[in-house]
Amino acid sequence: MSKNLTTRSEDYSKWYNELVVKADLAENSGVRGCMVIKPYGFAIWEKMQAELDRMFKETGHQNAYFPLFIPKSYFSKEASHVDGFAKECAVVTHYRLKTGEDGKTIEVDPDAKLEEELIVRPTSETIIWDTYRGWIQSYRDLPLLINQWANVVRWEMRTRLFLRTAEFLWQEGHTAHATEQEAVAEAEQMMNVYADFAENFMAIPVIKGIKSANERFAGAIETYCIEALMQDGKALQAGTSHFLGQNFAKAFDVKFATSEGKQEYVWATSWGVSTRLMGALVMTHSDDNGLVLPPNLAPIQVVIVPIYKTDEQFAAISEEAKQLMARLRKLGISVKYDDRTTHKPGWKFNEYELKGVPLRVAIGPKDLESGTFEVARRDTLTKQTVISAEIVTYIQDMLEEMQKTLFDKASQFRDAHITEVNNFEEFKDVLENKTGFISAHWDGTPETEEKIKELTKATIRCIPLDRKDETGTCVFTGAPSAGRVLFARAY
């Protein structure tokens, strides 16, 4: 199997696009800007989904489902929300097709115009808050902790598989609370859940922070986020959690009776991650040989490849492989035995290297005689001969070590690419020649942030939650600054 991948140093963007397709994760579809997620890519997303779903339920959330279509009038109820999404909305105007006069073509029936246009959901705040009005009457109904797994549509002009597509998969949490403090605590909690998932399952170190006003979610009072750094030095927003205040409750008249009998508006949050996490996973760990997957999210953690010449050897190796599979599966390790006779071992080695399978076990006649297995690590491309009695423990330990090694490697790269600068010349130099996060003072105004973005294409990724109290002067205007923020170019 020939990989023929463009190298990262040659063209990082091309490398990414080729890898996503060649590793069988996804491909472009016949619908402009939309993708087909292939079985191997969807298997990774399913593992992400399963872990996140478990974490949501452990924090008291329940799953529900809301309509794909949203009446246009709902959007007009929250002004900043509609302004934030107006340019990305797909709109349904008619409900019927008809055969053209030539008897062959299909056209929209002009007599089937909807009385009110429907928006294909770009996010579900409006339809959900209209629904919550009927669900919430009393303080006894709160908190309401709902999550939805769904697809959304945002009409992107420039698309890239997983990172930015017109339609994508995600989850969106929408919660209602009796007090401001409870809602803020919920938004912070979900940011922490996302950070836990990113670091312990995806092996991606993240920086927790809040967004500037320019980068805040449309309709939010505060947006909490986790920011990751890719190997090309660009940032990627890996998850957001929004404190919505009472904006949507007031827009949709969602009130509750307090224990004292007073009528008050509820306090809200929303939060979500999407299939762009797949892009983050690919770009954080993978190399010029293909995918590198952290064991905690790999659909296949161990693959066993037989090496043989005769049918008798194949039968004996298969028996040994099946015994090893049974032992590993009892420990919850996902393992595949590739007994295809249509491909040679070398071809299979290349395939699983490209697909990022963490551990590869090769068994040949000599291994059967000596009671050993050859184990190859995907992350370091090193091999080790392991005796049969120790193989299961070795694989268990190695999967744990690989998970930690990938996180540590990504952390070292991220930390080495956070650079403090004190003037705009340094800012531009780091951006062009080193890349990564730039820690710089900012005067706190949207105008300065917009001007820096216009000149450099760098945005404020976040105001770190753990930033030090440090007064200074803005890197661009020289005006007083209350502290440093993180700038970067981003996906």
TrEMBL record:
Reaction equations catalysed: tRNA(Pro) + L-proline + ATP = L-prolyl-tRNA(Pro) + AMP + diphosphate
GO MF annotation: an example: proline-tRNA ligase activity
Domain of life assignment: Bacteria
InterPro entries (UniProt xref): aa-tRNA-synt_IIb, aa-tRNA-synth_II, aa-tRNA-synth_II/BPL/LPL, Anticodon-bd, Anticodon-bd_dom_sf, Pro-tRNA-ligase_IIa_arc-type, Pro-tRNA_ligase_II_C, Pro-tRNA_synth_II
UniProt keywords, alphabetically: Aminoacyl-tRNA synthetase, ATP-binding, Cytoplasm, Ligase, Nucleotide-binding, Protein biosynthesis
The enzyme's E.C. designation: 6.1.1.15
Cross-referenced Pfam families: HGTP_anticodon, ProRS-C_1, tRNA-synt_2b
Domain called Aminoacyl-transfer RNA synthetases class-II family profile: residue spans: 27-294
Residue spans crossing the bilayer: none
Major place of residence: cytoplasm
EC category: ligase
Subcellular locations according to the entry: Cytoplasm
Similarity remark: Belongs to the class-II aminoacyl-tRNA synthetase family. ProS type 3 subfamily.
Subunit structure: Homodimer.
Chain's role: Catalyzes the attachment of proline to tRNA(Pro) in a two-step reaction: proline is first activated by ATP to form Pro-AMP and then transferred to the acceptor end of tRNA(Pro).
Record comment regarding domains: Consists of three domains: the N-terminal catalytic domain, the anticodon-binding domain and the C-terminal extension.
UniProt name for this protein: Proline--tRNA ligase
Originating organism: Flavobacterium rhizosphaerae
Lineage: Bacteria, Pseudomonadati, Bacteroidota, Flavobacteriia, Flavobacteriales
Encoding gene, per UniProt annotation: proS
